[in-house]
Amino acid sequence: MIRDDIKAALITAMKGGDKAGTQTIRLIQSSIKNRDIELRTSSAKPDDDLLVTEVLQKMIKQRRESVEMYEKGGRQELAAAETAEIAVIERFMPAQMNEAEAKAAIGAVIAELGAASMKDMGRVMAEVKARHASSIEPARASALVKGLLA
Question: Would you say the pTM of this structure is higher than 0.90?
Answer without folding.
Answer: no
